[in-house]
Amino acid sequence: MSLPMLESMNxxxxxxxxxxxxxxxxxxxxxxxxxxxxxxxxxxxxGADHDLPRILKPLSPxxxxxxxxSGLTQDKGRSNGDGPGDHxxxxxxxxxxxxxxxxEGSEIRAGVSVDQFAAQKIGHKTRFASLxxxxxxxxxxxxxxxxxxxxxxNNVSWRDGATPMAKETNPRLVxxxxxGNGPKSERNESLARRQRYQKSIxxxxxxxxxxxxxxxxxxxxxxxxxxxxxxxxxxxxSSGLKAKAPRSRVCSRGSGSRKACRTATRNISV
Length: 270
Description:
Distance between the termini: 19 Å
Oligomer: single chain
Low-confidence stretches: 12-16, 236-270
Order of helices and strands: HHHEEHEEHHHHEEEE
Number of domains: 3
């Protein structure tokens, strides 16, 4: 479980102001399969001294740090003689720039995606070289779009021309991967134990966090931890034990005009 950044967490070289203390630059690619309304997306002028269009309006406070690029149409996303199958092609070419081989069998061919190219070069600077996340798992085999394999339609990240990077769609497993400690066997055991008692990972770290507060010498560290703990308790309460749902009245019409009602409650787990 992550804690607020404390001075004691900095290595000696970082405290000395070494260049290695600079956090790694993050890179993220978001795939929007249905595209955007370009008239509401593309700014009407170049530079920073203009209003952002409606879709990008919420980013106005940071627009001087924002670049909106245009003219990046992927030629290999066009049919180029391969006929229909735009949906599969657009996903397959999005980060690879390679026209997918039109095949619905085991023979698939795309290219290394830019996220995986970056992971090979600088992935060692972070705990995970890359994280592939999605909202639905999708199929990895069979035909999904006009003769194109489902592997093209359901993946945008490719380790090599024939190996898509499987995405994780379960938020709980993503959380466990990011914040679980120890080897995989210990993480699995911890997860099973928490599920058995219906507790959050936060319940298991609050006591350790309190002891850290007592051992932390720096005033800023104690203040940071004391500020963090209430939020941790709130999150723990929100995700933890069985809670009673709002009481609801379940009514059935009896004899005559009067209703016989009973109040029902049920236990829910979040």
